[in-house]
Structures are given as C-alpha cells and as structure tokens.
Amino acid sequence: MRALLDFLTRYHHWFLLIVLEGLSLGLLFQFNHYHNSVWMTTANTVVAHVAAWEEGVLRYWHLGQTNEDLMRRNLMLEQKNERLTRYIATLTHDSTWTERRQADLLSDVTLLPAKVVTNSVLRRDNFITINRGEADGVKPEMGVVCGTGIVGIIYMTSKHFAIVQPLLNSRSRISCRLRDSQYFGYLKWEGGNPLYAILDDIPRHARFKEGDIVETSGYSSVFPSGIFVGKVSKIENSDDGLSYKLRVHLSTDFSRLQAVCVVQQHFQSEIHALEQQADSLAQQ
User: Fold this and answer.
1) How would you class 88 by CB atoms within 10 Å of its CB: exposed for 0-12, middle for 13-18, buried for 19 or more?
2) Lowest-confidence range among 82-86, 126-130, 196-200, 232-236?
3) Are strands 109-118 and 213-216 parallel, antiparallel or unpaired?
4) 28 pLDDT band (50/70/90 cuts)?
5) Is the Cα torsion angle 271, 276, 279, 281 positive or negative in sign?
6) What is the mean pLDDT of the chain?
7) Partners of 230 in the beta sheet?
8) pLDDT of 227-258, one tens digit each?
9) Can you give the pTM of this predicted structure?
10) How far apart are CA 217 and CA 182, in angstroms?
11) Domains parsed from the chain with CATH numbers
C-alpha cells in the first residue's frame, strides 16, 4: 500500500494531465458539431474494422465444421443424382427384383465424419491416418470419401484411429464406370502426378470421349454407385491392345485433404461375407 501511494504521489501530475486531456477532448467533441462528426465517423470506421477482423477470426475457426457440412451436402447431392438416374431408368424398362434389391442395398449408407491426422502423396504406396477407429464403428474394407469424390479404403484400425489405403497407392483397385455409357473398369494409380490415375479394362467397343465423367460403379460392398471420381483427360490403348485405358483427372486433391467421411453401408458385412463365401466355393 505504501508503494502504491508513493507511485501515485510521484506521478500524480501525469495522471492529472490525462484527466484534463480527457475532459478537454470530451468538451471539444460535445460542443463542436464538426469535431463531433469527425470523431463519430472515425470511431465507427475503427469499430467496423475491428468487427470485420473479429468476424474473419471466428469464420476461420469454424472452417472445419463448414467444410464437413459442405462435404456432407455434396455427397448427399451425388446420391440424390444417382437415385434419380435409377428412377428414370425404371420408367424406361421393367427392372427385375434383383436390380431393385441391389439398388436398395447400395443406397443405404451412413457417413461418419473424420479428420486427416497424417497424409502423404509423394511415395509409391501412400497411406492416410484418420481420427476414427473401432470405437466409432470403423472397420477394414470400408470406403472413405470427401466432398470432392472418393479417397480410398480402410486398411487397418485401432480403437481410435484408422489407416486408409488411398487411391494414391500401387495396390489400390477401385471399380469405376463411365457415367454416360455405363462401361466399367478398375481405377489404379501408376505413381507420379497425384492428380491423375488410370481406368483399365474398358472394352474396345465402348463409346466415350475426353471429358466424360468417371464415377464409382457400385459393383462392390465398399462404395455405393454414383460417387464422383473425376473426368477422362486422355484415351490410350492397353498394353495388350485388347482394351482401352483412360487417363482420369481426379476430382480429389490429396495434397490438400483435411476432412473425410467413412462410408458405413448397413449391409456391408453381409455382402462381404457372401462374396468371401462365393470366392471360397470357386477355389474348391
């Protein structure tokens, strides 16, 4: 207390100066319309800049949630487009019970949001780690997508994390098709540029062109049909000359990947078990 009193006594003239300056400024702005208008204009400008800065900071902090919401909305639109396409197809031909049943199975999915923990794009066999695991219901062989398209397949899991084998992996093979012609093949990455992959085994009699859309075929228990993959950028002959291989410009930029969704198909375990049973019978 003694030190505080000594401080106030020593610098009392400065405090008095500040009080008098404040009082004089208050009287100046209060009784002079010009100075008052200048003060109000300046104050409003400063407040507006501060408010804009605060809004920008808050918007930055909410970018993650905004990205997840946009990703969910984009994937929902992709699924609605696929269902609408199937519905139009049913109006033009008599679908069998098997076709309708398969369409119902592939449309019954749940999207589980996840964050990318680690990622790589420069290796021959890249992997991605996400912050979802067995505790969240994530299992191997589940598909992973993002707001712009497919990402990869769950490779292994722990309680709270999972390793994803992305498209940018030499062992990745994902069944895809051309949206307009419905011809399908297997999408693989041959290394190099992370923005391009190859769609193999397209038959010679298929009709397509550069710029055609490539999407998931739905011919597996991993991905539902109709998820956007990319566009055809170049058409080449296969090594044996019996089919085409298409260079696909991927819609997903893996170098900027931050948020993804795990595709949980409600009947995936049943479909996968049935496929394994068929494989074992074929090998006997």
Assistant:
1) exposed
2) 82-86
3) unpaired
4) low
5) negative
6) 77
7) 214, 250
8) 889 999 998 888 777 888 899 999 989 998 88
9) 0.62
10) 8
11) 2-60 (no CATH), 100-283 (2.40.10.350)
What average pLDDT does the segment 129-141 reach?
Answer: 92
CA 128 to chain centre: 13
Phi-psi region of 15 (alpha: psi -120 to 50; beta: other; left: phi over 0): alpha
User: Which of 194, 126, 218 is closest to 164 using CA atoms?
Assistant: 126
For residues 251 and 148, the answer to whether their CB atoms sit within 8 Å is yes
H/E segment holding residue 130: strand 128-130
pLDDT at 282 over 80: no
CA atoms within 13 A on the CB side of 284: 6
Place of tokens 């369409």: 103
Q: Contact, 231 vs 212, CB < 8 A?
A: yes
